[in-house]
Amino acid sequence: MYSKLILERWARRLMVLGALLGWSASAAAASAILPFGADTWSELQRSSARPMAVVFSTTDCTHCPGVIDGLAAVIKKSRSGVRLVVVVMDGAGQEDALRQDRHYRNAHVLYAFDGDALALRFKVNPDWRGLTPYVALLPASGAAQFHTGAPPPDALRSFLLR
Amino acid sequence: MVRTFVAAMMLTWAAALTAQEGHGGHGTDETRAGAKAAPTEPRKPLLRPKAALSIGVALAPTGELWLVGLNGEGQLFTRSSRDLGTHWNPPRLLDTGDKPAADGENRPKIAFGPQGRVVIAYTQPLAKPYTGEIRMLRSDDGGQSFSAPFTVHRDRQVITHRFESLGFDRNRVLHTVWIDKRDQVAAVRTEADSGSRKRSYAGAAIYRNESRDGGLSFGPDLKLADHSCECCRIALAPTPEGGLAAMWRHVFEPNVRDHAFSILGAEAQAPVRASFDGWQLDACPHHGPGLAPARQGGYHAVWFGDKAGRAAVRYGRLAADGRPQGEVRELPDPRAEHADVAAAGKLVAIAWRSYDGTQTQLKAWVSADDGANFSLRELATSSQENDYPRLLATDQGLRVLWRTAKEIHVLKIDP
Q: Which pLDDT belongs to residue A26?
């Protein structure tokens, strides 16, 4: 039982790394939806695929598509190699609907969250009060910066130029 | 170099948004009638849908406590208790044929009216993202049997009709109020047709209707207010005159997400501003207010907001017309969220949940003097996933209900 859990955990890690590193075309990458579990945030933080912009989104969030589209466009324009990761907090079991939402296709990696949202929020940032979109800018090294809604231009500039 | 980069980035961002608006507006897939998704074969879901824990609660005229929610299979069920939650009857499934939403702020509701009338309402998500219909089941026999579900509003566009709240007034009129995007969608279409790139309609709208026969038939859809926030619950409370008052998160000019208040049915009264946090935000708080009648007139209100950079749940009194009255106080818990408020005589309780990184605590702020002074109580803890707490005023005092993945807590709030 324990070894099975270990294997599952490593399989998930490899899946995450593979998805992040294997990205080449955004439209193709977004068709794969990965489960975002209790350890995925830690794995992203440790990932060699940083820098990345992680957008925590919900399906009923009317501001999320604009932020995802905006970030995707800016990242593409910047040619910075930053990966856009979208985590749909209420996406578990709705993968077909997510695949058909054009905004999510902007993501290099798309996750459906599966777990305790309160615990995830606390782990990501205890100050995150559940508002969406919630954006974590993970530079190549160093701590993440968090923004509710679209990151301010200055913060985005420093992140992309870093 | 830096300025050029920022300018280029902002132009890119603006272009992305413009392209989006040209297809129907910021975050409104529902308006993209012409946008066709690439055909894809349905695949087996990667994950099992999360169990939705949100419940609605109400007291029957007989004093029975009822709740409505979804089970682990996503089916609507009711449970009832003759002793305020000490013992529960087995869950009774209601065959709706729908897949109701019951996540967070968008919970199923139940309300009891006169002559054995009972209604249950929920949001049925539709095929396009962000869309939904308000569905209702009705009973004429005190909840022994329910009708098949039907749609409450006349507007049948595949757009947002969500976050319903409902209640009977003293004149036996059933009021249903919900968040509705028909005006936002119309504005986006008009602007697109005129070639404008401007997005002028902020937020959604609050609509309502009335039924004078317990949900058998409904009057027209009536607009209560333009420019509500899009994803927060609407609070209802009885008025001293026997009507219903509503409080919701609103988008005030220029882009401030404070709260508005209105008496349902008072057509001449424009909504009034009930909170002044001044929270400017382009995001979804997913965090609606709570409202309860105060003993000496006016209302007790709780809401979440960011005031001068300080995010908190706050308590304040509202006058009978909804205007703020007196001091606004922060709850004594910086991690408080999704608070509810109820009152029974001089007893006032505010209940909320608070996560400390290990477990969720159910806490209450209790006043025995109509809100003048409060004391903090810790009522329960859970390491399971859990719903937001609901307060209920009963003939035997105040109760707080809290559903966790494991159980349903029903706790008495003592003075």
A: 43
- Cβ-Cβ pairs closer than 8 A, A with B, add up to 166
CA B109 to chain centre: 10
How far is it, in rounded angstroms, from Cα B98 to Cα B305?
A: 34
B246, B236 Cβ separation under 8 angstroms: yes
Contact B9 A74 (CB under 8 A): yes
Q: Is residue B262 part of a domain?
A: no
Residue B275 and residue B298 in contact, taking contact as beta carbons nearer than 8 Å: no
Of B37, B281, B386, the CB nearest to A100: B37
Read off the pLDDT band of A40 (50, 70, 90).
Answer: very high
Residue B20 and residue A65: Cβ atoms within 8 Å?
yes
Q: What is the DSSP letter of B214?
A: T
**Amino acid identity, residue B380?**
A
Measured CA to CA, the distance from residue B98 to residue B123 in angstroms comes to: 9
Q: Provide the domain limits for residue B82.
A: 50-228
Residue indicated by tokens 């309502």? B208
What amino acid is encoded at B147 in this protein? S
Q: Does B385 touch chain A (CB under 8 A)?
A: yes
Nearest by CB to residue B47, choosing from A93, A119, A126, is A93
User: Inter-chain contact A131–B360, Cβ cutoff 8 Å?
Assistant: no
Does residue B38 carry a pLDDT above 60? no
Over the stretch B247-282, which tens digit does the pLDDT of each residue have? Answer: 999 999 999 999 999 999 866 578 999 999 999 999
Measure the CA–CA gap between B260 and B209, rounded to whole angstroms.
18
Chain A residue nearest residue B405, CA to CA: A116
Length of chain A counted residue by residue: 162
Domains of chain A with CATH codes: 2-161 (3.40.30.10)
Nearest-CA distance from A47 to chain B in Å?
23
From B6's Cα to the closest Cα of chain A, the distance in A is 6
- Domain tally, chain B: 1
pLDDT at site B16: 58
- B51 near A CB under 8 A: no
Mean pLDDT of B293-302: 96
Q: Find out whether B292 and B315 touch, Cβ atoms under 8 Å.
A: no
- Looking at residue B36, its pLDDT comes to 34
Which residues on chain A are in Cβ contact (under 8 Å) with B360? 118
Q: Domain for residue B386, yes or no?
A: no
Q: Which residues of A touch B180 (CB under 8 A)?
A: none
